[in-house]
């Protein structure tokens, strides 16, 4: 079992500015750990986490991939999250994380078209008024707009162009995001394989991991 990354360098007040890992984060970590052998067998060269927040997920992914020359790119719309992601890598002796302060995959495509072997996203999934979407601060951690789907839906058209032929995408969703509908969209509209691989209740939330690949 791979230990949860050390986050002791992040101070309590930092969590006013960057998302504090919670049950959703841990479900995503568990999904990656469950696929540890599969991920290692792919020998990933470039991994990307969208919305890396504290950097906890990418750091664990780097530990799973192990000693290799793989590159771990992260994006976040919140610049403090990018800084924290880098620090979390260093705190855990992971030096190959390159945080990019951008939205979703802006600046990644077209250069890295079909080059991403492992893609992860724990998105802002909470149902909120549309007007709350699009901040650059801590609100961007949760504000998902109508059905909590606005940021997620913006990404879906790019997935087939991001993933390498062997690439795997791990996406966290909650019931309100209509995970089954997202699976159908990925299959019928984009011709990808998609399935729910994990689900768990966390208080009032029902959380899911959807895995998507070519
Ligand atoms: C629920 S938090 C997840 C943070 C971390 N990955 C985790 O699992 O603990 C969502 C993250 O997505 C970021 N985010 C929101 N909208 C984004 C966008 N359009 N592009 C990139 N990152 C975004 C937020 O700033 C936040 O860090």
UniProtKB/TrEMBL annotation:
Q: State the UniProt keywords alphabetically.
A: Methyltransferase, S-adenosyl-L-methionine, Transferase
Q: Note whether Transferase occurs among the keywords.
A: yes
Q: Name one Pfam family in it.
A: MTS
Domain (Methyltransferase small): give its ranges.
27-127
Q: What Gene3D superfamilies is this protein classified in?
A: Vaccinia Virus protein VP39
Q: Please verify whether the record's keywords include Transferase.
A: yes
Family annotation (InterPro entries): Euk-Arch_PrmC-MTase, PrmC-related, SAM-dependent_MTases_sf, Small_mtfrase_dom
PANTHER family for the chain: METHYLTRANSFERASE N6AMT1
Q: What is this protein called?
A: Methyltransferase small domain-containing protein
């Amino acid at each position: 079992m791979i230990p949860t990354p050390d986050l002791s360098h992040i101070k309590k007040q930092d969590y006013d500015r960057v998302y504090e890992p919670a049950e959703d984060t841990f479900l995503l970590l568990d999904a990656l750990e469950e696929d540890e052998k599969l991920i290692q067998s792919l020998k990933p060269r470039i991994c990307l986490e969208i919305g890396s927040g504290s950097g906890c997920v990418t750091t664990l992914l780097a530990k799973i991939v192990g000693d290799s020359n793989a590159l771990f790119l992260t994006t976040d719309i919140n610049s403090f999250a990018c800084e924290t992601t880098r620090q979390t890598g260093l705190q855990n002796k992971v030096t190959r994380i390159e945080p990019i302060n951008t939205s979703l995959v802006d600046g990644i495509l077209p250069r890295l078209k079909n080059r991403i072997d492992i893609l992860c996203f724990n998105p802002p999934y909470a149902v909120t008024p549309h007007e709350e979407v699009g901040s650059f601060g801590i609100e961007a951690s949760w504000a998902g707009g109508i059905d909590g789907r606005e940021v997620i839906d913006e990404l879906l058209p790019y997935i087939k162009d991001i993933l390498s032929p062997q690439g795997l995408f791990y996406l966290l969703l909650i019931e309100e995001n209509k995970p089954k509908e997202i699976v159908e969209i990925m299959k019928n509209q984009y011709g990808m394989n998609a399935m729910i691989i994990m689900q768990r209740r966390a208080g009032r939330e029902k959380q899911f991991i959807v895995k998507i690949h070519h």
